[in-house]
Design brief:
Layout lengths: L1 E7 L13 H14 L3 E2 L2 H9 L7 E9 L8 E3 L3 E3 L2 H12 L9 E5 L3 H8 L19 H6 L3 E5 L28 H18 L7 E3 L7 H11 L6 E3 L18 E2 L7 H7 L2
Helix pairs in contact: 1-3
The structure holds zinc ion.
The site of zinc ion has 5 residues, from strand 3.
């Protein structure tokens, strides 16, 4: 089995072209993935296939979105670059165009930030060189309806992302911007377990038990001690931004992932990743 995780950011809209706008890249990538014989499956199914030691010649892709802007699911107009199709609607467009049989497992996982205060701070302090956000863009009201569609799952991107814009973060040493410093049970529970229960509550208990490391930062405490012990809460995997195909031997707690606009910036570069 070959397995690849692809990451997108719905707030990566700093131009009108593929490299600078994930809403341009994503619909094109759905076609490319399909044309090149890869099967899109829900992230949790891909992780289960890895755990099952599936050694067939299948090529599986899981799609992921980070940070949870409402642009994952709702079309919006960028003041400079105009109307943008949401990722969810791009998936529906694909299904309408190609038929449900083209990618029967069509699905994506959206990693959201739990803390309302963190989301509010991020809306007003985003990096304009890389992102576009506006007031209300990181609301949580879309999480449950998105889950209802069957095309999206909502998963955990930490309590507050240890976001540098916050006056206080949920960490004993206020380690803003550095998730590698989450290395005690208390700090990890404050960032991961608390977020999981918040997100589960807001989605009627349907949160996916997968974590995406903020900034892609992880450490040996999280991958070798914390997550294996916290499997009793249902966690099945944790996702990095280390580019590469998923290595089954690495286990589920530091899953490799390619990021659009960073690890590939054109259809040709994605084609190269997919071989
Ligand atoms: Zn993030």
């Amino acid at each position: 089995m070959k397995a690849v995780l692809l990451g997108y950011h719905a707030h990566h809209v700093v131009g009108a072209d593929y490299a600078r706008n994930d809403h341009r890249a994503f619909p094109a990538d759905l076609e490319l993935i399909t044309e090149s014989g890869w099967r899109i499956v829900p992230l949790v199914d891909l992780i289960a296939a890895l755990a099952g030691g599936d050694d067939g010649d299948e090529k599986l892709v899981a799609l992921t979105f980070d940070d949870g802007p409402v642009y994952d699911v709702e079309d919006f107009a960028h003041p400079e670059f105009g109307p943008q199709r949401s990722f969810l609607n791009a998936m529906r467009d694909f299904r309408d165009r190609r038929g449900a049989g083209a990618q029967p497992g069509l699905h994506a996982t959206s990693f959201v930030i739990a803390s309302p205060a963190a989301r509010a701070a991020m809306e007003s302090s985003f990096d304009r060189d890389y992102t576009w956000l506006e007031a209300g863009a990181l609301s949580e009201t879309w999480w449950a309806p998105a889950t209802d569609t069957g095309l999206l799952g909502i998963a955990n991107h930490s309590w507050d992302h240890l976001h540098p814009a916050l006056a206080t973060v949920a960490h004993s040493a206020q380690a803003r911007g550095d998730f590698r410093r989450v290395e005690t049970w208390a700090d990890a529970d404050a960032q991961i377990l608390r977020a999981q229960s918040y997100i589960a509550e807001r989605t009627g208990g349907r949160a996916e038990a997968v974590f995406a490391y903020p900034f892609g930062h992880y450490n040996a405490f999280l991958t070798e001690r914390y997550f294996p012990a916290r499997m009793r809460y249902g966690f099945v995997g944790a996702v990095t931004v280390d580019p590469g195909p998923v290595d089954p031997a690495a286990g589920p707690w530091r899953l490799a992932r390619y990021v659009c606009g960073h690890n590939w910036r054109s259809p040709e570069e994605l084609a190269a990743i997919l071989g």
